[in-house]
Amino acid sequence: MEMRRLPRASSADLKRFHSEDYVSFLEKVSPGNVDSMTMDTLAGFSIGEDCPVWDGIYDFCCLYTGGSLEGAIRLNHRKSECVINWSGGLHHAKKTQASGFCYVNDIVIAILELLKYHQRVLYIDIDIHHGDGVQEAFNLTDRVMTVSFHKFGLQFFPGTGDMYDIGKESGRYYSVNVPLLQGIDDNSYTTLFKTVIKGVIDCYSPEAIVLQCGADSLSNDRLGNFNISFDGHGECVAWTKSLGIPMLVVGGGGYTLKNVARCWANETGLLVGERLDDKLPETCEYYNYFGPEHHQLRSGLEFKHENQNTKEYLQAIKVEVLENLRQVKGAPSVQMQGVPEDFFNSDRVFREEERDIDESGRDEDEGIETGYDPSLDD
Ligand SMILES: [Zn+2]
């Protein structure tokens, strides 16, 4: 595994998906000036309770988006087979609006980059919330298939993603939604996950995968109410990796913070083919944070929600989804001529000796090259 510092995406990168006025707003807004903005402006960009303004918001967006974008560029140029950006995965953000703690949709921007070199991209979302922002962005195209496994109920955010929500026009049948009820367990979830994704792979033959690994689908999440263990969540990640398709892995939601760290540490191990020791190393910088009782990587979850997903309910979803996939007639392809330039200067992105971080996690060089080209910034 090679560790790299997040490069910074430019405003031009963000505008590949987001509207000019929304990106300009994010660039300018701060806790010091937000009160001087009109209610109409803030409401228009959906800034408020779920998506507050805080110091450093724009830098945060540029950094996590830069990580996903560089991941896409590395896959495009076959510099990596699998790239992880746990800081990315903000799947709710819309073209002109923030939504559900997400301001910039790094996933959409990364997929747009992947489409320069890949005919078909598969997006898989195992966050407990519907991946609505990504689906909406690609709802009309057959070049991206979005598959979201999520809790569904009109009272549960964002309230979209029922099993009849399948995409529109050229994208009809290329949005797959798997709406679940509270309390789903490892066995039901992983079985359904593999059945659906295998069906998708068979009919769609994706050339690249983006996997959003929101950790709020774990048991004991403060907002979620599934009964999924670290092993169940991780099994979906490891199984997807085993398909051998170039993959960008991103984070997402997760509101019991210690478990988010556990989940993604465990899955980083799985993605490099290792099952990490369950005992956290005492030399770990944050060892005491996980104490005093639970110094384990994968234990400590309680499975307390009644499983409302009956066999009949899950069977009905499976039948409906597989029936829709039968309508996908062969893998669509396009002429890949005149590929647009990379948004990052790829010479800089791939000047690896300057950007590697040594195994202890420290930068080898304080003057590290970030791949960020200031000339691209407005
Ligand atoms: Zn979520």
UniProtKB/TrEMBL annotation:
A divalent metal cation binds at D127, H129, D216. GO terms for cellular component: nucleus. Keywords: Chromatin regulator, Hydrolase, Metal-binding, Nucleus, Repressor, Transcription, Transcription regulation. It comes from the Eukaryota. The keyword Transferase does not apply. Its EC number is 3.5.1.98. Residues 345-378 are annotated as: Disordered. It catalyses: N(6)-acetyl-L-lysyl-[histone] + H2O = L-lysyl-[histone] + acetate. It is found in: Nucleus. The active site is at H92 (proton acceptor). Signal peptide: none annotated. One of its GO terms (biological process) is epigenetic regulation of gene expression. Residues 348-360 have a biased composition (Basic and acidic residues). GO terms for molecular function: histone deacetylase activity, hydrolytic mechanism; metal ion binding. This is Histone deacetylase. It comes from Pristionchus fissidentatus.
